[in-house]
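tl;dr need the bound structure. longer version: we got a ligand (flavin-adenine dinucleotide) that a collaborator sent over and nobodys looked at where it sits. i said id run it. heres the input, straight from their email, havent touched it
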Amino acid sequence: MSKPRRIYLLSPKAYSPETIAVAFAKTSRSPKPFDEIAAELNDESSARFHEKWVVGYGHASVAEHAVLHLALENVSRLAIESIEGNRLASYTEKSTRYQQWDPDAFYVPDELAGHPLEGNFIGTCRQLFDTYQRGIPKVKAWLAEKMPQDADESDAAFERRLAPAAVDICRFLLPAASLANVGVTINARALEYAICKLLSSPLEEVRAIGEGLRAVGQLETPTLIKYAACNPYLQAVEAKMAQHSQSVSGGDDGVGFRLLGWDADGEDRILAAALFRFGGAVDYQRCYQHVAGLSPEQKAALAADLMAERGKYDQPLREFEYAQMMFEAVMDQGAYFEFKRHRMMTQTVQPLSADLGFALPIGITAAGCEGDYQSAMRRAAELYDRIHEWNPAVASYIVPNGFNRRVLFTINLRQAFHLCRLRGASNAHFSIQRVAQQIAEAVDQVYPVLGKYLDLPQDVSWRSIEADYFSQIATR
Ligand SMILES: Cc1cc2nc3c(=O)[nH]c(=O)nc-3n(C[C@H](O)[C@H](O)[C@H](O)COP(=O)(O)OP(=O)(O)OC[C@H]3O[C@@H](n4cnc5c(N)ncnc54)[C@H](O)[C@@H]3O)c2cc1C
């Protein structure tokens, strides 16, 4: 006789995260139901189990069943980068698009306490924030002329349209020292590694956040993260590679976007994998040879059937992951802050610096704020250079959102579809829209058969975004 199906919660209201993790882990060897296993456990027996199996024998995936919700407030956006560098977690943070920053909402690095440059740091942050605050009403006034109130639009609705557009333009001034809040949902396995990385950071603030996360994390998962510690390898490799990189000659050639490589037969792979998945007992090689032998028209027809019933919000099938592309892109820090939130790709970013110049939005120029903007940005760049001579990591705090940054990334066609749809949409910030359009253009060039199904706004390109929104992309 078949047993009744049971589907139920092991609620965190009833069991601690470590107990839930043990209850799940034990199903591997125990025939008992989960709730019976859980009822036999307590915090001490759960801790013993984790010490033996997770810590001792390395069955680390068990720790993924212990999930924590961590609230971090008043941490710098530079530190948030280190936190969000951990891909296997979920984040929501204070938005530079939907909120206006308070004038004193910036972090003064502990490293600068009593240093001769401390006063200059505070003064430069004040100038950046002051230019930001004074710029918003001016940019709003310019926007009100550019996109006037509709006859049937209430004052409140008009304000809701103008305010974010003005903040979008002025956010270029916010330095990486700006303070923000971020909510993190993460499992104990990912948290342990995250804490290791944070504790290995060259920045005092980031190490202190690592300590703080370990302290509050241990309240809920005392065993699973207790061995999280600074990792000497992570510390050593940074210094060694920085030394080696000095032997790379040539510097920066100024190219802002480059497709470095791609799977030349990516579309054939995807189409063949789709036949493999839905066909009978045919091996992949035969599916691939079949697709490779099709005429361009036949391939287009096959792709059309693959995409035919796809709705606006349907993801492409997982088989789209068989086509990989590698890019190098220069984007402003505001765009990078959004770009880094996309976890399903491999990203490598260079340290935040003032070396690649800063973007100048048209709104700043048109609203008559360019002089103040240039002065604040140039002061930040000068101070960056001075701090960099003494402590390169700390220097990044003073770099505003408008400065450019070079990012290397590998992305598959499935994630490229997702990113381009989300970030190429007309409601996305123009800086990240530009990047999404650059990726979309490259996709279209190398994967035209499937690339035509990218859903992006018509009559927009990265060139038109540059022309419509930027006075300059890289002011040096
Ligand atoms: C209009 C808009 C407003 C936004 N406002 C804010 C804001 O105010 N604050 C803020 O912090 N962020 C904001 N974001 C960023 C947003 O929350 C996402 O972090 C970002 O767009 C990355 O996209 P993604 O979550 O789809 O995931 P990606 O990391 O790009 O992953 C691709 C896909 O993989 C799947 N996936 C990846 N990881 C997980 C996971 N852990 N669990 C389940 N599925 C997963 C999902 O299907 C996801 O769509 C905003 C984004 C948009 C488009």
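gonna send this back to them w/ a short note. Residues 90-93, 95, 98, 341-344, 418, 422, 427 surround flavin-adenine dinucleotide (CB under 6 Å).
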